[in-house]
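SAMPLE LOG
Freezer: B-3
Tube label: C17
Construct: single chain, 141 aa
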Amino acid sequence: MADIVHELDIAAPPDRVFEAVTTQEGLASWWTTDVSTTGTLGSEAVFGFEGHTQEMRMRIEALEPPELVQWTCLHGPDEWVDTTIAFRIEPGAVGTSSVVRLWHGDWEYEDGIMPRVSFRWAIALESLRLYLETGTGDPAR
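STRUCTURE (predicted):
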């Protein structure tokens, strides 16, 4: 199994980061505007991409405010199904900043899409940072 791991500093407190990765409004501000979620433990979040021609469904497995969000991919590209995505959010070293660690694990690497997914996560995390620091992210539309 292979894992995707990213870490970034964001000039926003952990509770704001947690809100951005758990609420429909937050997720629509940085990842994709086509999102439907109640943000509750055990529920499903649905993410549409490319005019909703590509859909991903995630089950919300863990919510530990403001430190941890974890999903399991139930539906999406074949290589995504049964992978786990977790956001670990910790207070940063400076004032009201945060350290965000994204882990996307349980990949069965077969020279497939994993390197591209890692790159796309890096772009999405930069959008998350922009959203929290400036008020304007760059979500997929």
